[in-house]
């Protein structure tokens, strides 16, 4: 039976994986109603787990070092209680195999080497090049769906990554190219990076420690 996370873990962890987010974004990411989120975040701030920051006219919640430690503690407890470690470890291995392909696809979307210009920007004037990249992302999305299915069979909170990736890819296929690797939006690359952080933090691994 899949394990359902507690609201406090879902909200705290949503702040962690998004990096910085307002209450509405935390609510969407955690799958928790806004009223509950707005009750929990000020409590977390009082505990020293989160802080609210303002930058360039926008603001949001971000984790403190104390909050990161608390989230890590909660994740470790949940992993032990749910018995999901083996499933998450296997998913992480599968993710690492796909990760190189995803990074290469995003690079190919941004760059299209030309003679004498290995790092030339992709101006998207070659439909065959772009179609190949989108085709590769479609294949990755299919494998991501299977990976997420395995994860959610153990921990429900991993649900939705495949749907968000697919939604971003759909927009890219519709002509909105920024949805492949754009920042500040739930692009394919952004969703992928969130899942990477989710897997690492769940297993208590530091980024770059896979090797």
Describe this structure in words.
Strands 1-2 form a two-stranded antiparallel sheet. 65% of the residues lie in helices and 6% in strands. It contains 9 helices and 2 strands, in the order αααββαααααα. It has helices at residues 7-18, 23-30, 34-47, 65-82, 85-110, 127-152, 161-173, 178-181, 188-203; strands spanning 50-55, 58-63. The longest helix is centred in the middle third of the chain and has 26 residues, at 85-110. The model has no long low-confidence stretch (mean pLDDT 94). The chain has 211 residues and is mainly α.
Sum up the structure in keywords.
211 residues; mainly alpha; 6% strand; globular
Secondary structure: elements and pairs:
Elements: H1 7-18, H2 23-30, H3 34-47, E1 50-55, E2 58-63, H4 65-82, H5 85-110, H6 127-152, H7 161-173, H8 178-181, H9 188-203
Strand adjacency order, main sheet: 1-2
SSE order, as H and E?
Answer: HHHEEHHHHHH
| Terminus-to-terminus distance | 32 Å
Find the structural class using helix and strand composition: mainly alpha
In short:
It is built from nine helices and two strands.
């Amino acid at each position: 039976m899949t394990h359902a996370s507690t609201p406090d873990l879902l909200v705290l962890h949503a702040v962690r994986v998004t990096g910085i987010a307002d209450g509405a974004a935390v609510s969407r990411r955690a799958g928790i109603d806004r009223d509950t989120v707005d009750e929990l975040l000020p409590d977390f701030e009082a505990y020293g787990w989160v802080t609210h920051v303002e930058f360039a006219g926008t603001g949001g919640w971000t984790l403190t070092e104390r909050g990161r430690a608390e989230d890590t503690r909660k994740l470790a407890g949940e992993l032990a209680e749910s018995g999901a470690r083996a499933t998450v470890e296997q998913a992480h291995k599968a993710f690492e195999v796909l990760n190189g392909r995803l990074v290469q696809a995003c690079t190919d979307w941004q760059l299209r080497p030309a003679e004498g210009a290995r790092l030339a920007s992709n101006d998207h004037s070659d439909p065959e090049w772009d179609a190949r990249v989108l085709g590769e992302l479609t294949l990755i999305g299919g494998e991501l769906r299977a990976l997420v299915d395995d994860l959610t069979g153990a921990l429900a909170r991993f649900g939705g990554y495949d749907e968000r990736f697919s939604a971003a890819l759909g927009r890219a296929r519709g002509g909105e190219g920024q949805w492949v690797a754009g920042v500040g939006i739930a692009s394919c690359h952004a969703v992928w990076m969130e899942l990477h952080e989710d897997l690492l933090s769940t297993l208590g691994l530091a980024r770059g420690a896979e090797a």
